[in-house]
Design brief:
By secondary structure, the protein is α/β, with parallel strands linked by helices. The chain is built from six helices and six strands, in the order ααββαβααββαβ. The longest helix has 48 residues, at 94-141.
């Protein structure tokens, strides 16, 4: 009988020791954590305070089921000796609804700013591409072949053609007008020389002073 009594005392001491080992802060944290993980309880609307292992709950919830569930969670938490339930069942505080509206407005603002930024980047890219295209077109349109370049091109073609005596024909260019001087072997060589000069890039007209001899 005494041995059994001693075992009961020992077991009771372990329970008391376990309860006391949990601090008030630890109990509060544990209760809040369990509420946050529970689908029924809106933990953000319930305040938890612990003093000497007695948990006090207050705040406003939307239903009786939430109120009862919160109290049950607190009672089942390790170290809790009692629960004072001051939770009120009623409408959700207006501040919470206001916060939701503000969050929605913030999200909308971010989306608008992102869209505006994307549009700005696309506009700048398009403007840059248009500028590059315009500059390239201007370069092509405004490309001018100098008289010296025309003279050089015509002489090079003469020397490369076996039907023309390139070394005997002088080439002079002024404002795109090519003048040929010299002696050729035949009328066919004269015509060929004039055709080569006419077909050269930048040539406006060909004046021939060539003589057959």
């Amino acid at each position: 009988m005494q041995q059994r009594f001693a075992i009961l005392i020992s077991a009771a001491s372990l329970v008391i020791t376990a309860a006391c080992s949990q601090s008030d802060t630890g109990i509060t944290t544990a209760v809040k954590t369990k509420m946050a993980a529970d689908d029924t309880v809106k933990a953000s609307e319930i305040n938890v305070d612990t003093h000497n292992h007695v948990v006090t709950l207050n705040g406003t919830v939307g239903s009786q089921a939430e109120k009862e569930r919160a109290a049950l969670i607190a009672r089942d938490t390790n170290g809790v000796t009692a629960v004072v339930d001051d939770i009120i069942v009623g409408p959700v505080p207006a501040a919470t609804a206001g916060e939701k509206v503000e969050d929605k407005a913030y999200d909308t603002k971010e989306k608008v700013e992102d869209a505006a930024h994307d549009a700005k980047v696309k506009t700048e890219d398009a403007a840059h591409d248009a500028k590059v295209a315009t500059e390239n077109a201007a370069d092509k349109t405004g490309e001018v072949i100098t008289d010296a370049a025309i003279t050089s091109a015509v002489k090079t073609k003469f020397l490369a053609d076996s039907d023309v005596s390139g070394l005997k024909i002088d080439v002079d260019t002024s404002n795109g007008v090519v003048t040929l001087n010299g002696t050729v072997k035949s009328k066919a060589e004269m015509d060929k020389a004039m055709a080569i000069a006419r077909d050269s890039k930048g040539v406006k007209r060909v004046v021939s002073h060539l003589k057959v001899g």
